[in-house]
Amino acid sequence: MSYKIVTTDENIEYEQIKDLLHYYGLTDLPTEKIELAFQNSLYKVFVLDEENKVIGCGRAISDGVSHAEIYNIALKEKYHKQGIGRKIMETLVKLAHGQIITLYTAPWSMDWYVKLGFRPLNTGLVKFRGHEIEWMEEHGFVGEGRENNS
C-alpha cells in the first residue's frame, strides 16, 4: 500500500475531507465551511492513496511564531496501525517547529498523543458552541463547570 503526504490543498476534493471528518464525528460543518477552515489554517496535511483519494488529514491554526493548535486529525480506519497517523502528526509538528503546540482530542485517544510526546494540561478551558456541550459532557471530553466561589 503506497500513499503520499501533501501539505497543500491543491486538487484536494473537500467532499472527501467532509466525509472523513463526519465519519469520526469531528465536525458537523458542511463541505464549504470545512474547506474554509483548512484554507484559513497555516498548516495542513493530507494523505492520498494511489488514486489520489484522501485517506487522512490534519491541520493546525497558528500565528507562525509562538503558538499552533492542531485540529481534525483523521485517518480512514483501514489505514490505522500502519504509522500513517503518526506521520500526519509528525508533519504538522515539523511545520510548527519551535512553537507551543496544543490540541484537544477524544478521551479514548489521549494515550496515543501522549506516546507522540504531548502532555495533558491541568488548566485548559474550552467554550463550545451551544449544541455541542451536552454531547461533549456525555462522552467525557469535559467535566461539569466549576462553581463560582467568589
TrEMBL record:
<dbReference type="InterPro" id="IPR000182">
    <property type="entry name" value="GNAT_dom"/>
</dbReference>
<feature type="domain" description="N-acetyltransferase">
    <location>
        <begin position="1"/>
        <end position="140"/>
    </location>
</feature>
<dbReference type="Pfam" id="PF13508">
    <property type="entry name" value="Acetyltransf_7"/>
</dbReference>
<dbReference type="GO" id="GO:0005737">
    <property type="term" value="C:cytoplasm"/>
</dbReference>
<dbReference type="InterPro" id="IPR045039">
    <property type="entry name" value="NSI-like"/>
</dbReference>
<keyword id="KW-0808">Transferase</keyword>
<protein>
    <submittedName>
        <fullName>Acetyltransferase (GNAT) domain-containing protein</fullName>
    </submittedName>
</protein>
<keyword id="KW-0012">Acyltransferase</keyword>
<dbReference type="InterPro" id="IPR016181">
    <property type="entry name" value="Acyl_CoA_acyltransferase"/>
</dbReference>
<dbReference type="GO" id="GO:0008080">
    <property type="term" value="F:N-acetyltransferase activity"/>
</dbReference>
